[in-house]
Fold this sequence. Notes:
Distance between the termini of chain A: 41 Å
Oligomer: heterodimer
Largest sheet of chain B: 7 strands, mixed
Helix content of chain A: under 10%
Number of strands of chain B: 11
Strand content of chain A: over 45%
Structural class of chain B: mainly beta
Largest sheet of chain A: 6 strands, mixed
Strand content of chain B: over 45%
Number of helices of chain A: 0
Amino acid sequence: AQSVTQPDARVTVSEGASLQLRCKYSYFGTPYLFWYVQYPRQGLQLLLKYYPGDPVVQGVNGFEAEFSKSNSSFHLRKASVHWSDWAVYFCAVRGTNTGKLTFGDGTVLTVKP
Amino acid sequence: DPKIIQKPKYLVAVTGSEKILICEQYLGHNAMYWYRQSAKKPLEFMFSYSYQKLMDNQTASSRFQPQSSKKNHLDLQITALKPDDSATYFCASSHWYQDTQYFGPGTRLLVL
């Protein structure tokens, strides 16, 4: 079975500060990993995806994530947060033999001025 | 222009009634999916279709029936509605099955 844990329900950062949102996955095999963002009352938008290869992947709007097989993690980072990054961030995993995405509970990011 | 259209945007229904949620994608994708997001549970996978054939079904209740009349359509029929069905239902699509999924804006369903 595949699962995702996002240990931080809420994260608050100051505008211009760096950001890390944590994601731990569970999957026996090679996972495909994703970060999606959900702005208020909108659908999910893809930020970035990891397919087996380079462990550091670049996404949109300055986001990047690093895959670690030893830590079963796929943490999301951004060097300098902007107020428009205020949203809910979801980490998701998909196995190799299914189309099913399994999501974490999400992390609410609040940006202080 | 939106590439994945979900209709209606908001829907209010009475307990016991039946509703159909519409999803159309104009991305030329061959696989489509339904997910549900409620206050009690995180985003939950429901169904996946590839070339109009059911691939995965994670919904225990037969009250939820996907309907694919065209390649770029995957509607969701919900019968005998219950208040617990209140949620936002998201449609997604991907170029092919097991490819990266892109989500529609969702239909917010409230069952009274």
